[in-house]
Request: fold
Amino acid sequence: MSENHVTETPHPDHDRGLEFDLSKIMSRRSLGVFLGMGGAAAALAACTPDGSTPSATTTAAVTESTVPSAGATGTPAPTLTRAIAECGVEIPQETAGPFPGDGSNGPNALEASGVVRRDITSSFGASGTQAGGVPLTFTLTLLDNSNGCSPLAGAAVYAWHCDRDGKYSMYDSGLEGENYLRGVQEADGNGQVTFTSVFPGAYNGRWPHIHFEVFESMSNATSAGQVLAVSQIALTEASCNDVYATEGYGTSARNFPRTTLQSDGVFGDDGGVYQLATMTGSAATGYTAGLNVTI
Reply:
């Protein structure tokens, strides 16, 4: 998509918070999640891209050096410390935002034939439009907090994110007939789901991210049933700087320096420390991301 059609203003009503979403766009199904779960505190984070998980009985910490954002003065950014929490710390609950495509505020991709898939780069159904961008493969490892953080085999994940221009299929102008960068996967015996996609863009007011909803089963997911958790994956600063310097991400290169993890309306409460993916790769070869999700 041409960048000439991209607005650099924030999406209307994007992530204005739980109270706004509950009153304006949340369905009875989504409302039950937030009222029933009471809001979890923090997430078990920092899994490896191949999905290996930290010990449930060990607390440790790792550090990741960050590089200055585009437009920075050249002074090295502070070192970001990312915690590996003990079992018992759950993924932070977030709003689904205004573009979930799960039936809670209009269009519903979950009940459409073709939504269950690993590769989410193209639209399914009437359109086969392909989303362009740097390849990104991301894996979520679902862990059952009530059962010693054992794998949540058989659970399902619906994941979605914006394209490299910062626009969402099914919602943004000109994309109402597209449903790319959306898909559902069932967790395997290790509690893992993996999606093949493209690196999302940065739009004004938000740190680059991927949305996801977790369901108890595939049947719940494809019938837009009860949601167990709603959260987001934060992408690393180093990977964003690398990708946004490439062709096709010009709008993201301009938008990215305007928001930090600390100022982001979703990740800012803890600086994204518990939702920050572990990432490897490069813009030239593609990126791999991984995150543990304790529920």
Q: What stands out?
A: The longest strand covers residues 135-144. The helical segments are 18-24, 28-37, 218-222, 237-244, 250-255. Residues 28-37 form the longest helix (10 residues).
